[in-house]
C-alpha cells in the first residue's frame, strides 16, 4: 500500500516505505522533555503513514544494521557488559523477545519451545538454532550477544533493588553520545545526570517510580530524538573523534539536507516475566532532511521545533552548531 500526499504541495507523490513507517516524534511546533510513556504495540498514525504496531521492528536496514553491530563489537568488545547476577534476566529476555518477534513476523521467523528446549528459525539470516534456556554453551555466542544478533535494538537491563533501578547489563552499539562501559553499574538517576532540566523538572525520578511499579509482562514505550550527520548508527562516546567534527563541518556543506538525519529512538520498557528485571530496548531510526521534507507537515514542524528549542537542550543534544542551518532550509519555501 502506498501513501499519497494530496495537499497540493509540490512534494505530492507516492512516498517510499522508509518515510511512511518513520516514527516522526513531534505533535507540536515546540519540544520539551516529558515522561512521555504509552503502551507498546499501539499503532500511531502520522502525516505520512503509521508506525508502532510491533514490539520489535524489522525494516529494510535489518541485515545492514546487524552487520554494523557485529563490526562494532569486533572493534570494541566493551559494548557488551553484564554483571554476573543479570544472567537469568538475559535468558528471560531471550525467551521473551524471540517468540514475540516470531509472532509479529510469522513469514520470516519461527520459535518453538518444549520445556527448556527451543528451536529458532530466522529466514532473513538463513539461520536455524536449537538451544536450551539457561545453557550458555547451547548458543553460538553468549546469550546477550546472540540476542543482539537477531534484533536491531540496543539492549539494556536494569535490576530493581533498594527502591531504585541499576543499569547492570547491556549490549549497546548505537548509542547517541553516551557509553555503556561508563554507565554500567550506575543507578537510573546517575545515568541521567548529564541531561539538563530533568532533575529540576523531576522527570527522571517520576520515570523511575513508574518503571519500578511495572508488573511482570508489562510493556511500555516512549520516543526520544536527536540529529546525526550521515546514517551513522554508532555515535557512542568511544568513537567521538570519528564523528564529532562533522557537527561543525556540516554547516557549510551544500549537501546538508541529504546528510543531516533526524534520529529517533523508539524505546521500549518491559518488565520481564520471570526475573522481574527491567528490559530497556532502544531502536534507532534515521531519516535525512530531504526525506522529511517530502512530507509538508513534517518539514514545517521539524523546522519550528529546531528553531524554538532552548539553547541548553540544543547544546546537550549536540545540534547547536547546525540547527539554524537545518531549520532555515526546512522552513524556506523551496526547501
Ligand atoms: C520513562 C522513562 C525515561 C525517561 C522519561 C527518560 C528521559 C531521558 C531524557 C529526557 C534524556 C535526554 C535525551 C536527549 O535530550 O537526547 C535521556 C537520556 C538518556 N537516558 Fe533516559 N529516560 C527514560 C528511561 C531510560 C532508561 C530505562 C534508561 C536505561 C538505563 C535510560 C538511559 C538513558 C541514557 C543512557 C541517556 C543518555 C544520558 C547521557 O547523555 O549520558 N533512560 N533520558
Structural account:
With 335 residues, this protein is α+β, with helices and mostly antiparallel strands. It has one domain (29-284). The protein contains 14 helices and twelve strands. A seven-stranded antiparallel sheet has the order 1-10-11-12-8-9-4. Strands 5-6-7 form a three-stranded antiparallel sheet. A two-stranded antiparallel ribbon has the order 2-3. α12 (296-308) packs antiparallel against α14. The protein starts with 16 loop residues before the first helix and ends with a helix. The structure holds protoporphyrin IX containing FE. The site of protoporphyrin IX containing FE (HEM) has 22 residues, from β8, α7, β10 and α13.
Order of the strands making up the biggest sheet: 1-10-11-12-8-9-4
In the predicted model, the low-confidence regions spanning at least 5 consecutive residues are 1-12
What is the beta-strand fraction?
15-25%
How many discrete structural domains?
Answer: 1
Multimeric organization: single chain
Number of strands: 12
* Span of the ends, CA to CA: 27 Å
Bound molecules: protoporphyrin IX containing FE
Write a concise synopsis of the structure shown.
The protein has 335 residues and is an alpha+beta fold. It has one domain.
Amino acid at each position: 500500500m502506498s501513501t499519497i500526499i494530496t495537499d497540493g504541495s509540490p512534494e505530492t507523490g507516492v512516498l517510499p516505505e522508509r518515510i511512511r513507517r518513520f516514527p516522526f516524534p513531534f505533535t507540536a511546533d515546540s519540544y520539551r522533555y516529558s515522561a512521555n510513556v504509552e503502551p507498546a504495540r499501539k499503532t500511531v498514525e502520522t502525516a505520512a503513514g503509521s508506525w508502532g504496531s510491533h514490539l520489535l521492528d524489522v525494516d529494510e536496514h535489518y541485515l545492514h544494521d546487524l552487520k554494523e553491530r557485529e563490526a562494532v563489537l569486533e572493534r570494541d568488545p566493551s559494548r557488551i557488559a553484564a554483571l554476573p547476577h543479570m544472567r537469568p534476566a538475559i535468558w528471560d529476555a531471550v525467551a521473551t523477545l524471540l517468540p514475540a518477534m516470531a509472532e509479529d513476523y510469522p513469514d520470516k521467523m519461527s520459535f518453538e519451545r518444549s520445556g527448556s528446549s527451543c528451536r529458532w528459525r530466522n529466514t532473513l539470516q538463513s539461520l536455524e538454532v536449537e538451544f536450551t534456556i539457561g545453557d550458555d554453551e547451547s548458543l553460538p555466542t553468549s546469550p546477550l550477544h546472540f540476542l543482539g544478533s537477531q534484533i536491531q535494538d540496543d539492549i539494556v537491563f536494569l535490576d530493581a533493588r533498594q527502591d531504585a533501578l541499576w543499569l547492570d547489563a547491556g549490549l549497546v552499539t548505537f548509542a547517541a553520545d553516551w557509553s555503556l562501559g561508563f554507565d554500567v553499574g550506575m543507578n537510573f538517576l546517575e545515568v541521567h545526570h548529564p541531561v539538563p532540566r530533568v532533575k529540576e523538572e523531576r522527570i527522571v525520578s517520576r520515570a523511575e517510580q513508574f518503571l519500578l511499579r511495572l508488573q511482570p509482562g508489562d510493556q511500555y514505550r516512549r520516543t526520544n530524538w536527536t540529529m546525526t550527520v550521515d546514517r551513522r548508527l554508532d555515535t557512542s562516546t568511544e568513537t567521538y573523534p570519528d564523528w564529532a567534527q562533522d557537527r561543525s563541518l556540516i554547516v557549510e556543506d551544500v549537501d546538508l539536507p541529504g546528510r543531516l538525519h533526524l534520529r529517533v529512538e523508539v524505546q521500549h520498557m518491559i518488565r520481564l516475566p520471570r526475573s522481574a528485571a527491567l528490559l530497556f530496548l532502544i531502536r534507532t531510526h534515521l531519516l535525512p532532511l530531504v526525506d522529511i521534507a517530502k512530507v509538508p507537515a513534517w518539514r514545517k514542524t521539524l523546522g519550528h521545533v529546531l528553531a524554538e528549542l532552548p539553547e541548553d537542550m540544543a547544546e546537550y543534544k549536540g545540534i547547536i552548531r547546525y540547527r539554524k542551518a537545518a531549520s532555515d532550509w526546512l522552513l524556506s519555501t523551496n526547501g
